[in-house]
């Protein structure tokens, strides 16, 4: 009996030593998918499980939020089209103006200034030169919306930072600033 216990103990320790003989290679992986990720090309035509990525929305569909996609191109002709056709769908009231002012103070004031005269913090610090005053431009709600969506010159697009409603609220406030500058 004593020899049997010794033999079992010897076999047990020998199996442990043999199983751990090569430390350079993994012996056993628990849940190997946690160690080896499935790569895919983020800019490719197909993503995980061959699901399509970066595809354009179906024509005529409305994006989440309930507003149609802005499909006017970023061209001079598109700018003129937006200027001629787009109008602000929001009512001009104190609530929209106040929210527009708050958003203007977050996104626009650093370049365009408190009064819309192009004398913001970045212009005063000589970071950007030639920021236009709203009074010097022939702009309306449609052209402002187009510039918010696509950007113009050094100004980049702000479409991803603002919702549909917030863009139009800012436009109400910008038009008020422009009116004050023209007086």
From TrEMBL:
Signal sequence segment: none
Domain Cytochrome c: 95-178
Pfam families membership: Cytochrome_CBB3
Bilayer-crossing regions: none
Entry keyword annotation includes RNA-binding: no
PROSITE patterns (alphabetical): CYTC (PS51007), PROKAR_LIPOPROTEIN (PS51257)
Protein name, as recorded: C-type cytochrome
Species annotation: Polaribacter marinivivus
